[in-house]
Specification:
2 domains; 13-stranded mixed β-sheet; 12% helix; elongated
Length: 297
Amino acid sequence: MAASNLSCLSIFQNLQSELNLLPFKNLKELNLHSSEETDKWLALHDHLSGFPLLETLRLNPSFQTKTIEISCHHLKTLELSYKCKMAEVKIDAPKLCRFSFCYLGGYIKSFSLNALALSYAFYGLLPLLDSYILLNDENIELLSKLNNTKLLELLIPSIKKISIPKELRETVPSPSYNVKHLELSISQSFPRNEMDKLLDSLLWTFPLPDILSMKFSYKSFLDFDQITLKFSYEKPIYEGENPSCCKFLPFLCWRHCLKAIKIESLTDLADGVILYKYFSENAKTLEDFWYHVGAVA
């Protein structure tokens, strides 16, 4: 059939239960959007092997879907938008380079990811359930599965979604200690007097970053600020056991080897005073602090 050469296919509503995809052997991109109450069609580990050229998969399953299983050893891009009260997600895609997971609220029962080549990951939490806490035990486990990505992008509605209690930081390992580049977007207004709490949580989750970029709103979507922090380190000189803040890490955290920090802010000069105070009090080896207001690279 002529459609056997089709390379891109998008299916909306519940048509996928009636459509035989097997003739489309040359598919490179597949987009599935479902409103069905069954999750049988999402057992994709049994079907994706029939698409040897498939590189991009986008899924938007129904609210009722409880389990998502994806197995595709040649998949390079996966985008998953999902809302469920309780979810079990299993992804086996060792060649996956780009992974986007937009979670609309609920509880993640379990999450497993085999993606050895991952270079970019996006994790978005939309503000549908305001009581939902992003970094609870389950989501700390999820972030740990993204630990080897080069660039991680987080989208959250407010600072409380990423606030981590001190008790938790002292009892579990940092989930993303290998992530070097983090881009954080906060969609709601951000109180500047909580900057230290935000940094405590971020720099525990990502304890040795090279670049940390934060974008947050003031009063509206169009009224926002962006701050980019670039870290430079020296080899730490330390003998003995790791300090308590590094006891779960394979290396010493930023507090013991931060040599210089360069900060660029889009609009707010006052943040420079707050940030200087924070890093001068917490970084034991800091030698150079640079703060600039203007364009952010």
